[in-house]
Amino acid sequence: MSTKQQTKNTPSHNPENQNEPPFLDEFQEEGDLGVYCDLFSAKSQIMGQDGGIVTALLLKGLKEGLFDAAIVVQRKNGYSAEVISAETPEQILASKGSIYHRVGTTKKLLELVAQNKKRLAVVCTPCEGATIRKIQQTLCKDVELTIIGLFCFGAFNPQRLKEAIKTQLGVDIDRATKTQVKQGKFIVSVEEKEYSCKIEDLIKASDRVCGGCGEFVSMLADVSVGSAGSKDGYSTVIVRSKKGAKLAANLVDVQKDIVDKPIIVKLVKLKKEQAKKNYTQ
Ligand SMILES: Cc1cc2nc3c(=O)[nH]c(=O)nc-3n(C[C@H](O)[C@H](O)[C@H](O)COP(=O)(O)OP(=O)(O)OC[C@H]3O[C@@H](n4cnc5c(N)ncnc54)[C@H](O)[C@@H]3O)c2cc1C
Ligand code: SF4
After folding, report:
1. Does 154 sit in the ligand 2 pocket, CB within 6 Å?
2. Structural domains for the chain
3. Rounded CA separation 226/235 (Å)
4. Which of 41, 66, 102, 213 could join 257 in a cystine, given CB atoms 3.0 to 4.6 angstroms apart?
C-alpha cells in the first residue's frame, strides 16, 4: 500500500541541503526524510539484498530508455567491490546485493563523462550522492543523471572488516554468499549457515570517514532505497523527484506493503546526533 503524503506542495527545502532545489523541485516536503512525494515498501521477483527494488528500477529504466548505462557495484574476488558501468540487463542483475564498503562511484562517473556518456543512472550511498550533485552542478551540467540513493548508517574498512569477522565469527568473509546489516547486527551467510555479531562489536572495523557523516536516507537522490522501515525481504522506497516518480511508476511484478516511517525517522535523527557528537569530541 502506498502511503503518499498529504503535506502541502512547497518549493521550500531542507536549508542544510543547498543542492536540493535544482533537482528535487515542485515536490512535497517532510522534514526528517527530506523532499519526497511517495513512500512505500516493496518486494520484486528479484532476489536482491532486500526486496530487489534497486535492481528492478535499474532494469525498468534501461528498458524504457531513461538512461543508457548504470553505475553499480559488483562483487569481485572474495568480498571486494568494483564499480562498473552496466549497459545490459545481465550486468545489472549480476550487481544485485550490498557490499558494505565505501566505494568510488564519483570516479567512475567522471570517467564515463570524459567518454562523452550523457544519460546515466548511479546507485550510491548518501555521501557519494551529495558529491555527484555538486559535480552535476559544475562539471556535468549537460549530463542527464538519475540517482538511486541507498540508506546508509555506515560502511567498513575492507581489511579491518575481514579481520574482525574472522575474530568475532570465525569465518572468512570472502566465502560469504551474503552479508546483511539488520537490527543492529552484522550477518554473514556461508554455505546456508548464518553467523552474526553486534555491529558495535565491529566498531574498530568502521570506515573512519563515516563517523562524521549525518545523512541516512540519501536526501539528494531521485529515489532512495533501504531496508529500514520494511519487513524482511522488502525494500523501503522514497520517491523524491519527477524523474524518480517516472522511474518508480508502474513497476511490474512488485508486491507493496506499508512502511514503518517512525523507525526511519528515528534512525535519521540518531545518525545526525551521532555525527554531531563525533564531530564535537
Ligand atoms: C555501505 C552500505 C550501508 C548500508 N546501510 C544500510 C542501513 O544501515 N540501513 C538500511 O536500511 N539500508 C542500508 N543499506 C542499503 C541496503 O543494504 C540495500 O542496498 C537496500 O535496501 C536496497 O536493497 P535492494 O534489494 O532493493 O537492492 P538490490 O536490488 O540488491 O541492489 C543493490 C544495489 O546496490 C549497489 N551496491 C552494492 N554495494 C554498494 C556500495 N557499497 N555502494 C554503492 N552501491 C552499492 C549494487 O550495485 C546494486 O545496484 C546500505 C547499503 C550500503 C552499500
Ligand atoms: S556513513 Fe556516510 S560517509 Fe559512510 S558510506 Fe555511508 S554515506 Fe558514506
Report:
1. yes
2. 38-154+208-280 (3.40.640), 156-206 (3.10.450.750)
3. 6
4. 41
